[in-house]
Write a structure and sequence with these properties.
With 686 residues, the chain is mainly alpha-helical. 64% of the residues lie in helices and 6% in strands. A hairpin with a 2-residue loop joins strand 7 and strand 8.
């Protein structure tokens, strides 16, 4: 269980460093890798983390901090990296510290230098709260925390007594990728060694140089580098240590060899936080001599030159830029006097993206939207931060409200509440704009998921006031759906049915806001479930399922299947319950709805009580691993908690306390991803 990305290129060298780190990481609670940009700190940290997985039963987790601009965002970034889904509204730092308290886990904090003081304070707090936590940080400077063990990452060796040096091996490997049909001969070794020596063995500099071989013969490359670096060596450079100057000189040389349009795009791409795709580049970076239709070719060319990193994802090809390369681009963007205009185009693009996601969410592109919103989360966060400093408060309200699928459906409740409340703070209660309504509605849903009854009541009241002032059907129906959701998940499910069922019988209900109808149907089905009305539950859930299947909506469809599974349990059909529940679980895990997945696992456990009771506690153990990330079992919902207590009691009576405890413990020890995959395979073979 971890969040380490898959390596896409061969890892070269560092044998002794890795052996040392793998020993030290199990002993040192805070180890910081320092060194100049481009020396390979991130790659070394990831490989070392992978090497010590077995020593950390609760996983190795990577938190990339380079997109952050404020130390206040550190707890949220780590919370997100750990895939926590706490539904309470406690401070993120408290939740992270509490969750880590009983874990033996390695946390990699990558790229700390721009937030060094904040990272130091945060690391100190976490290490005090969690005795089994070990932290591996990467930074261009030490964090200066008591007990910190600092390891300086040196460049790769450029010469060796026996066999090729690591720097030479890296150059040959990347050259083979750049020019697949060209094989560098043994006679080229001297030229390669000279190139690597000029580049001080810095991996990024070597990769940038090797990427030039398609257009520059090896000897020509060697001569150019010799000419370029000779003045640097003679003058001694100014302002930075020699290896930093070497990297900057290499990046500058690579920049000079780019075409004018490639240089312009390089500068403009520095506005992105995290990765980006071709569509975003065309929208944000085009203009002047750089037409949007040129984006694809220029991106591919910059990737071939190792200026960009190219990766295939669920939503297509995306690109990323290393921090040192981005910093260089930002300097050029500043010199072009385009920094502010590009930042505004960036935030405008992601505001439009959020608006489209809100409009298209209850439709056939829903799963695609999930992947897109989560892939672009760093950019969405950056755009929101920018809008939150704008004199006009409405764009931030609109964007934060439109991102409700990300906040409510996909486990980003804490981040959503954080941004929504900051947006509210900039407006008045007298603001009755549509932007404020949808932001209130989104925050109300988040509060429902968090089990924050006081906030649900306040937000519901504010929503109704704005909807009454606006006087349009869409906001009135959405407001009713929020009221019903709050009632259905509290101790008043009967009131939810009384409110929503008459409204939904109106022919026009949901016409202006389809999501209001889906949410109302979801609330009614959950209310019937909590009331134990299985016949009504089956009817309402089937109506919801059919409505979702007509439009291609998946998130609410999975809840309909969950309720159908519970209806089947209530009428004595565990096989149907397993069938419906397994399909619901597949969808919920695809959409990373952790709350829904935990609820469904408990229902599947109840179905197994009739068909395979020995496995039922194992499923409850997996569910409890998910509940633990929420901060409160059954997300504080009284109906769910009561049902769980009854099921657990029956299982203990059937199996015996010892057998129940052993199977439940096995579920807790099973990785969540592995456990859910196994659950889905169980149903597949029935």
């Amino acid at each position: 269980m971890d969040s380490l990305p898959v390596e896409t290129t061969r890892f070269i060298g560092r044998t002794s460093e890795l052996a040392y780190l793998e020993r030290e990481l199990t002993e040192q609670r805070l180890l910081t890798l320092t060194g100049v940009g481009g020396v390979g700190k991130t790659r070394l940290a990831r490989r070392a983390g992978a090497g010590v997985r077995a020593a950390f039963p609760d996983g190795v987790w990577l938190a990339g901090l380079s997109p952050l601009r404020d130390a206040d965002a550190l707890p949220l970034a780590v919370y997100e990296a750990l895939r926590l889904a706490d539904r309470s509204h406690r401070p993120a730092v408290d939740m992270v510290a509490e969750w880590l308290a009983d874990k033996r886990l390695l946390l990699i904090l990558d790229c700390c230098e721009h937030l060094a003081d904040g990272c130091a304070d945060f690391a100190r707090l976490l290490l005090a709260a969690a005795p089994g936590l070990h932290i591996l940080a990467t930074s261009r400077c030490p964090l200066r925390v008591p007990g910190e063990h600092v390891v300086t990452v040196a460049p790769l060796p450029v010469s060796t007594a026996g066999g090729p040096a690591d720097a030479v091996v890296l150059f040959r490997d990347r050259a083979a990728s750049a020019v697949p049909r060209t094989v560098l001969a043994e006679s080229d070794s001297a030229a390669i060694a000279e190139i690597c020596a000029h580049l001080d063995g810095i991996p990024l500099a070597i990769e940038l140089a090797a990427a030039r071989l398609p257009e520059l013969p090896l000897d020509h490359l060697r001569r150019l580098l010799h000419t370029r670096f000779e003045p640097l060596t003679a003058q001694g450079g100014e302002g930075h240590e020699p290896r930093h100057r070497t990297l900057r000189t290499t990046i500058g040389w690579s920049h000079e060899l780019c075409t004018p349009l490639e240089r312009l795009l390089w500068a403009r791409l520095s506005v992105f936080a995290g990765g980006f795709d071709e569509e975003a580049v065309a929208a944000v970076c085009s203009g002047g001599p750089l037409g949007g239709d040129r984006a694809a070719g220029l991106l591919a060319s910059l990737a071939d030159k190792s200026v960009l990193q190219r990766q295939k994802t669920a939503t297509g090809v995306r690109y990323a830029m290393l921090d040192t390369v981005r910093e260089f681009g930002k300097e050029w963007l500043r010199g072009l006097d385009e920094e502010q205009s590009l930042a505004h185009r960036h935030r405008d693009h992601y505001r439009r993206l959020a608006r489209t996601a809100h409009r298209e969410w209850p439709g056939p592109r829903q799963i695609g939207w999930y992947h897109r919103l989560t892939s672009d989360y760093a950019n969405l966060r950056s755009a929101l931060e920018s809008w939150l400093t704008d004199p006009d408060p409405l764009p931030a309200l609109e964007m934060a409200g439109n991102l409700w699928p990300l906040w409510f459906c996909h486990g980003f409740q804490r981040e959503g509440r954080h941004y929504l409340e900051r947006a509210f703070a900039r407006t008045s209660d007298r603001d009755h704009s549509p932007e404020r309504f949808w932001a209130l509605w989104a925050c109300g849903l988040v509060a429902v998921a968090q089990g924050d009854r006081a906030a649900v009541t306040a937000l519901d009241s504010a929503c109704r006031a704005v909807a009454d002032a606006l006087g349009d059907p869409a906001t009135a129906e959405a407001s009713a759906s929020l009221t019903g959701a709050g009632l259905a998940t509290s101790a008043r499910p009967g009131d939810a049915v009384a409110l929503l069922e008459p409204a939904m019988r109106s022919p026009g209900f949901g016409g202006d806001s389809p999501i209001a109808r889906y949410m109302a149907l979801c609330s009614v089905t959950v209310a019937h479930l909590n009331l134990g009305r299985f016949a009504e539950l089956a009817v309402t859930a089937d109506i919801l399922r059919e409505a979702c299947e007509r439009t291609g909506e998946q998130w609410c469809r999975a809840y309909a299947l969950y309720c159908l599974a519970n209806a089947a349990l209530g009428t004595g059909d565990p096989v149907a319950a397993l069938r419906h529940g397994s399909e619901a679980l597949r969808i919920k895990w695809l959409l990373h709805d952790t709350l829904g997945a935990a609820m469904i696992l408990e229902t599947l456990s109840a179905a197994l009580m009739a068909t395979d009771p020995e496995r039922a506690p194992w499923l409850l153990g997996i569910a409890d691993s998910l509940w633990a990330s929420f901060g409160r079992p059954q997300s504080g919902m009284p109906g769910l908690a009561a049902v769980r207590r009854g099921r657990e009691r029956r299982l203990r009576d059937t199996l015996g306390a010892a057998a129940y405890a052993a199977a439940h413990r096995k579920g807790l020890e099973t990785g969540i991803d592995d456990g859910i995959a196994e659950v889905l395979r169980l149903d597949h073979h029935r």
